[in-house]
Amino acid sequence: MIAITVPQKGINMSLREKISEDVKEAMKAKDTKKRDALRLLMSAFKQIEVDERKELNDEDIIKIIQTQVKRRDDAASQFKSAGRNDLVQIELDEIAIYMPYLPKQLSDDELSSALKKIISRVGATSAKDMGKVMGTASKELSGVADGKRVSECVKTLLS
User: Fold this and answer.
1) CB 108 within 8 A of CB 73
2) Helix, strand or coil for residue 103?
């Protein structure tokens, strides 16, 4: 007799598989906003795979999601300045759909603490040393803190 094991949802599942499962669930639930937003992500994954001829890992997928979130955020701010609040809400809704797939972001206190450690490690003393700090910080805090937040915090800490 052959034993068949059925994997449980969410256990040892790649990020891409999780998103694919969520597309199916959104289709079953007739949640068109979520379905369409996640399909856009899936198409971005495929586009990168075709363009760069490589298989994406979870790190690559997180970077793509971060890019998509940033695009939506930029679009929302442009729509807001143009007075198109209806379109702002669409962009913000998509960001809300993408956020659960990203790593948990550092709180302001956690970010400040991490940057203080980096500043002391690289020996930064003034705003002139911001480049050294940002280089290290962008590598170490990639995915858990937005670059704009990191930059603002570094400026505050070095001034």
Assistant:
1) no
2) coil
CA 48 vs. chain centroid, Å, equals: 16
Work out the angle between the directed axes of helices 58-81 and 32-52 (0-180°, nearest 10).
120
Terminal-residue alpha carbon distance, the chain: 71
Domains of the chain are: 15-101 (1.10.1510.10), 108-158 (1.10.10.410)
**Cα gap 98→126, rounded to integer Å:** 37
Average pLDDT, integer, range 79-93: 92
Amino acid letter for position 39: R
pTM surpassing 0.90? no
Q: How confident is the model at residue 23, as a pLDDT?
A: 93
